[in-house]
Amino acid sequence: MIPRYSRPEMANIFSPESRFRIWFEIESHAADAMAELGKIPAEAARTIREKGGAAVFDIDRIDEIERETKHDVIAFLTHLAEIVGPDARFVHQGMTSSDVLDTTFAVQLSRASDILISDVEKLLAALKRRALEHKLTPTIGRSHGIHAEPTTFGLKLAQAYAEFSRARARLLVAKAEISTCAISGAVGTFAHIDPRVEAHVAEQMGLTVEPISTQVIPRDRHAAFFATLGVVASSVERLATEIRHLQRTEVGEAEEAFGAGQKGSSAMPHKKNPVLTENLTGLARMVRAYALPAMENVALWHERDISHSSVERMIGPDATVTLDFALARLTGVIEGLVVKPERMKANLDMLGGLFHSQQILLALTVAGVSREDAYRMVQRNAMRAHAGEGTFRALVEADADITANLDQATLDAAFDDAAHVRHVDTIFARVFAD
Asked: Can you tell me the distance from the alpha carbon of 254 to that of 85, in angstroms, rounded to the nearest whole number?
């Protein structure tokens, strides 16, 4: 995790203090369940819970033990025994390290999911507010980066709202899939531990029982989780890229807020660069990059190996922390986005109504002209307008072939800007049905 791109709440989930506390909770809940089943003394489970629960684990001491044992879970259990005393012999009964590690990772990713879902909900609120604000703010739509037909800036933001609504739904599914508990022993057969212990730990930790584990929770779950984060990051990049384009000098229709005292360039005092959305593009690339190693982790040897372990120690915190930061930053960009309706109008008018070409085409076909002939009539005037020989409307109205088929009232209707956005209310009703 890089502090520059980390927010405390998410980063804390993966801190050593948080990890060791979750490890203890799993061990303590397992001990409680075993005591309830008569497998260990009830007094021992109580001592484990009370002494361990009140302890502040010494990370330096755990690290010191691990340097000797070369095993992180054993190092923790040894330190826990120093705190609990003789009853620590009942800790970890019938369990294996992966029971602790995999269940902990599930808890961490589940809690991270809650933060990410909350992040998306805040972004959705910002998008909805700005979409309603600019519901009828006309702007040119572009395909291939070229002027196409009018839309509204509100529709651009409504599209993003719909996309991030799907992101929220995907995160909910990903959380449910990743939130499983495995306390099943060395190769997942429960040979030395009762399945009811697993069920108890799962309930206490807010997880569901993994139907079948082999010592580890199957990694297809993790692959799906990190792939989902990658898709959400791609949505972040899509919106960031749109804003970057709109801020280009030649477009100038919207831009990131530029604070008092902010500097855009060390060399050029005039610069106002889209640095936040460029940053978001880079962060999205990193989150997507974490999906591939998660997929490669699926194919472990037999019941388990640890080739996945080093990968997950990196991608677990890095992917979630990075996406958390990116979503929060994107929300701030949307909230502060400077929208320029006057520049949008100027760009709309740049080519003298050229974007009405399809309306003229359709009017001609309705008047009885073949589509091929109608297309030819409209296109020749469009190309002349592109060449600077006049506005598209003036050229169309001077074309005898067109005026022979369309009267002035029909031409006026075909050049009506409002026709392009007459169904905005319908689209908004669909998007914001909630």
From this structure: 65
